[in-house]
Specification:
There is one protein chain. Strand 2 and strand 3 form a beta hairpin. The protein starts with a helix and ends with a strand. It is built from 10 helices and 17 strands. Helices cover 40% and strands 28% of the residues.
Length: 252
């Protein structure tokens, strides 16, 4: 009986990615103690990760999806997130724009009356920002083909000289351990921007939750604001708020 129920829980997570303790208690008519034992078993098996109030499907992603496929995916959610992020940028701010499709959308939505200093390691985003009323500074560094991103020790050394008001950071994955990325050099540059920033704003659509990419960028306590969409796991949102992070749920 236990094994069959655990297999069913695993099947649920394959379909919906997250489950709550309350959901499992109601569906299987079991106690919270039984839920905890079942989730502990599945976590030990390596198929889930327990989070505050439930569990998420465990995903360790080693390869980054192509830029063009990311650009088209969850477009409505990303546009809403980008709009909420743009609202946080004030006139004369010094802003770091990270690599990523959602961050590029923020640049595209930047209001013309906001005169900012913009740092970025994303060539596409630099082009978008250059069409706005702001000063754009590229970090320099090694160009990654396809992504048209700049990274490496030179980029980190250049960025280290500057104080940043707000860092707009794209997340490949969000778990209780923090945010993660696919490329080590780019994760290092993100970490440098976060260290130099007065406010760290992370953008993550619902599919980023429960994903652990190869390279850790920062722990959750380094984040000031996380912007997501209405499909984000409610228990994860609750956990982030409990840690003192301002969570903005952008509506489509």
């Amino acid at each position: 009986m236990n094994q069959k129920r655990r297999e069913q829980i695993e099947e649920m997570l394959q379909k919906q990615k997250t489950v709550t303790n309350a959901e499992l208690m109601e569906r299987f008519d079991i106690s919270i103690e039984t839920v905890r034992r079942d989730l502990a078993y599945l976590e030990q098996k390596g198929v889930i990760e327990r989070v505050y109030g439930g569990a998420v499907r465990k995903e360790v992603v080693r390869e980054e999806p192509l830029y063009v496929s990311r650009e088209e995916k969850n477009n409505a959610e990303k546009q809403a997130i980008a709009g909420a992020a743009e609202a946080l940028i004030e006139d004369r701010d010094i802003v770091f724009f990270d690599l990523g499709t959602t961050v590029q959308m923020v640049a595209g939505k930047l209001a013309e009356n906001k005169k900012i200093h913009a740092f970025t390691n994303a060539i596409r985003t630099a082009v978008t920002l250059s069409e706005k009323n702001c000063e754009v500074i590229l970090t320099g560094g090694k160009v990654r083909r396809g992504e048209l991103s700049l990274s490496g020790s030179l980029a980190e050394a250049n960025l280290a000289h500057f104080n940043i008001d707000k860092a707009i950071i794209g997340a490949a994955g969000v778990t209780e351990d923090g945010i993660s990325d696919f490329i080590a050099d780019e994760a290092g540059l993100r970490a440098r921007a976060i260290a130099n920033a007065g406010k760290v704003v992370v953008l993550a659509d619902f599919e980023k939750f429960g994903v652990r990419a190869m390279c850790k960028v920062c722990s959750l306590d380094a984040i000031d604001v996380l912007i997501t969409d209405e499909k984000a796991p409610k228990d994860m949102v609750k956990m982030l708020k409990k840690k003192g992070i301002q969570v903005i749920v952008a509506k489509i």
